Amino acid sequence: EEYKITPITSANVLPIVQINGNAAQFGEVYELKEDIGVGSYSVCKRCVHATTNMEFAVKIIDKSKRDPSEEIEILMRYGQHPNIITLKDVFDDGRYVYLVTDLMKGGELLDRILKQKCFSEREASDILYVIS
């Protein structure tokens, strides 16, 4: 089943599909790889750009479970900050929205905290410096 891509808009966001000049389906531009994470309304997967072979992450949001426009607006507004992932591309196939972002390979901070439990003052300082 094939759907035409429609731009995603909100009050303060330009149509992202038009910004990137995208008139293709997600699967024509990127190749899906393994799961990175799974949530109640979305799944995050690694993907590879078909032309450049560059790796990215894609968050695939089920539109019947959640409206993605607020998340897109936040990523558009704050995505240039060095500690926030950059939104690279957006696709909408009618049922799902695909948010293509930088691929972060360092793992989850929460997982590291739960595994290590105790941090030295220096380790904690280094982490807080990066995220603040």
Summary?
With 132 residues, this protein is α+β, with helices and mostly antiparallel strands. The protein contains 5 helices and 5 strands.
| Strand-pairing-aware structural class | alpha+beta
Q: Could you give the order of strands across the largest sheet?
A: 1-2-3-5-4
Counted by DSSP, the helix tally is 5
Number of strands: 5
Estimated radius of gyration:
17 Å
The gross shape turns out to be elongated
In the CATH hierarchy, what is the superfamily of the domain at 16-104? Answer: Phosphorylase Kinase, domain 1
Q: What is the first-to-last residue Cα distance?
A: 45 Å
Low-confidence segments, given as residue ranges, are: 1-19
Q: Which bin fits the share of residues in helices?
A: 25-40%
| Biggest sheet descriptor | 5 strands, antiparallel
Order of helices and strands: HHEEEHEEHH
Strand content: 25-35%
Average pLDDT reading:
82
CATH arch. level architecture of the domain at 16-104: 2-Layer Sandwich
Reported by name, the CATH topology of the domain at 16-104 is Phosphorylase Kinase, domain 1
Itemize the secondary structure elements and their pairings.
Layout: H1 16-19, H2 26-29, E1 30-38, E2 42-49, E3 55-62, H3 69-78, E4 87-92, E5 96-101, H4 109-116, H5 121-131
Antiparallel strand pairs: 1-2, 2-3, 3-5, 4-5
Descriptive account of the structure:
The chain is of the alpha+beta class. The protein has a domain at 16-104: Phosphorylase Kinase, domain 1, CATH 3.30.200. It is built from five helices and five strands; from the N terminus they run H-H-E-E-E-H-E-E-H-H. It has a five-stranded antiparallel β-sheet with strand order 1-2-3-5-4. A hairpin with a 3-residue loop joins strand 1 and strand 2. It is elongated. The chain starts with 15 loop residues before the first helix and ends with a helix. The relative contact order is 0.17. It holds the Pfam family Pkinase. GO terms for molecular function: ATP binding; protein kinase activity.
